[in-house]
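Many introductory courses stop at the sequence. We go one step further.
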Amino acid sequence: MYKILRKDAAPHMARRVLDGMEYLTFPALEETGLVRHMFGTRVGGVSRGKYAEVNFSYTLGDEKEAVDENLKRAAAILGRGRSLEDFVMGHQTHTDHIRVVTEADRGKGTVRERDYSDVDGLVTNVPGLILTTYHADCPPVYILDPVRRAIGLAHSGWKGTVSRIGKRALEVMGETWGTDPADCICCIGPSICRDCYEVSSDVAEAFLSAFGERTGEERYLYPGKEEGKYQLDLWAAIRLTLLEAGVPAGQIHVTDICTRCNCGYLYSHRVTGFERGNMAAFLMLEEEKGEAHAAPE
């Protein structure tokens, strides 16, 4: 079991298990019936050693066959008939770059080479495509526009947060499909928490330059545990960018699970560096009634 940070609060995420694979979900997204999603944990896969038990990344040295099997198990959770061919993977380099994903991108990063790079955010209105981003301390941001039936998923580390990648994803969705942030449900997933995330003065200055000083629920920066250091609340900063974009406060849902506090259950780069695997966030738009998905032959 994992440690949550706000034991007196209603749970913001739910623990699920299917065929031995454990994953986390947001009830706020589940209740819409419009999407399938999950945030993977380390439990229930076939990877070994420092990647045990679940690793979703092909780039950290794990066996390809193990990663394939872990992703197949995630695909089964996300829908009957889903397979490796349905994933679309980001190519994360801590940018604010957003890719509009189309049917032509199906399978890129799993069974097909990606023909793009430097992409930390993915948006689509194509049902059945599984948007995928990788995580090991940086938060994922899930976005659902239930009116235009479009979704977005972003990897929002400190550089992406300073650049307002969540807001940028909403802007791209607006430019592409007419998304109004006021309609959207946004969820900020597991990452390193404020008490565990100590940063240097240059990072603090970047945030102060981007957002200014904030108080109350908008406060994101606190004195560090030693001179010249600061504690950074990424969840609060990302929430701030979504509010700026026009998402109502009641439609923003923030996790209460820290990766570093739960480094046996979730990967934490702060704990192990690159001697680890990667978790992943997955988001897929459900097909409307009457649509059919042909399973790959």
